[in-house]
Amino acid sequence: xxxxxxxxxxxxxxxxxxxxxxxxxxxxxxxxxxxxxxxxxxxxxxxxxxxxxxxxxxxxxxxxxxxxxxxxxxxxxxxxxxxxxxxxxxxxxxxxxxxxxxxxxxxxxxxxxxxxxxxxxxxxxxxxxxxxxxxxxxxxxxxxxxxxxxxxxxxxxxxxxxxxxxxxxxxxxxxxxxxxxxxxxxxxxxxxxxxxxxxxxxxxxxxxxxxxxxxxxx
Length: 218
What we know:
Helices cover 20% and strands 32% of the residues. By secondary structure, it is of the alpha/beta class. This is MBL fold metallo-hydrolase.
């Protein structure tokens, strides 16, 4: 079936099948968080992005093969409610942005800086540090050698705008600057965007609206 990226809490996962990577999207918890399970097709190693909530659902999605790594995109509590339980059940390595790690109540094994590489099997993801929603938010970019890039943006980029900066002009200026320079300027319109909540989008769908976001200040 064609991947849509439209999932709901309590409903089935949606799977995006790429040549080298399988991406399983599932919605969990009272804040309708997205969690993404990445599986290297060559090695079957798995990586989870945001153990947000509902460890039972996440562990069921992970399955018997386990998960080697869990990446937390940022320190806000709705993105790590199931982290302790998933790590206890799987022994996974934990990754988070260096400047958000102290705000996550599960030890971060690998603090992540801008430009760092995180691997799942033979697949490489590049971390981009995006400041404004939190001090240490990270996005993960998969530059698919067989197609267009894919980027997991946490709460830094959604359909319709950047993440919440709590009406702080400096935080907004920082976040939109980082999103523009590190995401929009670096990646093509075909880039698929997987946000921390809600439906997916593409950079091409959002790019024409950047002036509107600047003008409204959020």
